[in-house]
Write a structure and sequence with these properties.
Elements lengths: L3 E6 L2 E6 L9 H16 L5 E5 L4 E3 L4 H6 L8 H10 L4 E5 L2 E3 L1 H8 L2 E5 L3 E3 L13 H9 L1 H10 L3 E2 H7 L4 E3 L2 H14 L19 H11 L7 H15 L2 H16 L2 H15 L18 E4 L3 H12 L4 E4 L3 H21 L4 H9 L1 E4 L10 E4 L5 H14 L5 E4 L6 H5 L8 E6 L8 E6 L5 H13 L3 E6 L6 H18 L3 H11 L5 H8 L1 H9 L12 H7 L13 E3 L2 E3 L2 H14 L8 H21 L6 H11 L9 H8 L1 H15 L7 H8 L18
Bound molecules: 1,4-dihydronicotinamide adenine dinucleotide.
Length: 702
Amino acid sequence: MPAVSYRLESEVAVLSIAHPPVNALSLPVRTALMEGLTRASADAAVAAIVLTGTGGTFSSGADIHEIGSGAALTSPTLRELQSEMEATPKPLVAAIDGIAFGGGLEIALTCHWRIGSRSARVGLPEVKLGLLPGAGGTQRFTRLAGPAAALEAITSGAALGAERALELGVLDAVADDALAAAIDFARQAARERLSLRVARGLDERLREGTPELFSEFRRRIAAKARGQLAPARIIDSIEAACTLPAEEAFRLERQYFLECRDSPQRRALTHVFFAEREARRIPGIPADTEPLPIRQAAVIGAGTMGGGIAMSFANAGIPVALLEVSPEALERGLQVIRRNYAASVNRGSLDATRADAALARIHGVSDYAALAGADIVIEAVFEDLNVKREVFARLDKVAAPHAILATNTSTLDIDLIGAATSRPGQVVGTHFFSPANVMKLLENVRGRESSAQTIATVMALGRTLGKIPVLAGNCDGFIGNRMLMFYGSEAEFLLEEGATPEQIDRVMEGFGFAMGPLAVRDLAGNDVGFLIRKGRRLPADERWSPILERIVAAGRLGQKSGKGFYRYEGRTRIVDPEVNALIEGVSRELGIRRRSIPDEEILERLLHPLINEGARILDEGIAIRASDIDVVYVYGYGFPAYKGGPMFWAEQSGLARVVETMRRLAPTHGARWRPAPLLERLSAGNLGFGAARSDANPGKCG
Ligand code: NAI
């Protein structure tokens, strides 16, 4: 099968890209397109040309494997192809059925007209990989749809539906049968000698690109795009379209593209992209393991997490029963869910019909018998082993024999919970993150007995719910929270030694976290954090900071009490001298001489211990691969994706540096701060985590 088929339909040459699975514009496709174009241009029997896809896809864009390797620059390049397209004197129409993303849309934008099917979706998602559309995408989109729409669409990378694309002028028409309509229109354009609409030559809408438009937009996305190269260059490139001659603006776009392509951010984002896909592969689970179909679900506990989990099911179209201990507790939980949906509708992020439909899928119940129809039950009651074991024993009696029983515990032993049932093979952890209806990560936890089908089911379920699932082994804190303990403690040690909450948060936010660790503590509630801390039995040699306890004792519970590590006016945090006095008091008491701590030290001391623990987790097989840990941190803990996740970042900045920090800390912090043996081995051999790839099944605890 050729990558592009060529056929003649009475005077119209139809070029169909046929390169499964997604019609990526790899070299064979570009070559075949070029040949098709040349042939159609030269053939006197051809009056017009239609470019289309097959299999419900126009083209998903560049071949992502080619981006880093330079193969994307092998001739014919996308841009050479586009020059050929712009040079053809024959009407050239794109018929877009299904998706046209990235380079796929850039090709379509180079055609003289675009006709989409009703299900067409178009977009320039390059920003998600740290890139900008480098084949004229920022230029042609701006010329067709105007700079305001271009800024919005290209910096977000969002897909546009057919109707919206039509409204914006990205599509010229929408039809039930895009191909038939495109062929008709192409023939008509040739017959009537319509003047060819070359996007490069359109300039009416460029006047809308006023200096205010750009400065306003830069201000608007400043917080979200902080520290990121691609969104900044996309704006620059669109501004160039509006202010410079076309030739110059296209050249600049190219230059910005290369700058992004060669940036560490692009490499980090590409790493995350592949890591996310790799995380789905579980060694030891045969590829043909059929996940259990989930048609009905149930959730026990309608608190913070249970409510969000129920919403996740409902949003994915799965009916869900929600069980609580009392009618009052149930009503409280349902009330929160209703308020959440209403807020989304008010914000405009969800339309009212869909919100109502989702809400109608959530059924409050108070009797366990109502759970008998569920294919999976997720428990989200208090974090108390005895309570959970009781719930599971009861559940085991009423749940359908095939049903999976899952727990949302964040720390407890899955095996002890499973042992309370007669079906430990069907027991598993599904650790959602708060708010559960929003956060992308689903950390699934495998118990000793969890069966292959159980694991395959919760991994598949993650995707059904629109989450990014990662599998972890069963140990205290699993992957994410086990590493986080070190981050949290280190923040307090730094306070004792001379840092301020404000300095620590500024450094971490500067690194790219949405919130620094102390601001996060205030948000989650310092009393909650302290309870968890108190429940932990720490080794006797371990350094311990009394700061959190003192903060709680001072009634500084966090945002909810108007003060914590900061004082709050609404949600605005304000530095509070009282906190500094409290911290200085602790330093004095402990006999620590406060010193000024460099920002770099703060960054390394917060991240290196977390990474060190990540290496232990990897070595023990609790995480299958280092990149799984990166996925956990990017999607569950706000680690900046453009830094690639903690393990990727550590590898880039040198594993030896992590070892060095840990050697320095261990004598005062305790044995758990010793360098992880795996890290020592890797850094001594100058190796990366790839060399540590474990094919062991996670499940054992070190
Ligand atoms: P929560 O206190 O907000 O909700 C717990 C709910 O369970 C309450 O509404 C309570 O009435 C209900 N409940 C208690 N015993 C019950 C029983 N026997 N039957 C039915 N309902 C019962 O707690 P939250 O924060 O939602 O935590 C739930 C679980 O999720 C815990 O295991 C927690 O460790 C875990 N988790 C919490 C996260 C968070 O950020 N809050 C994040 C990830 C996991």
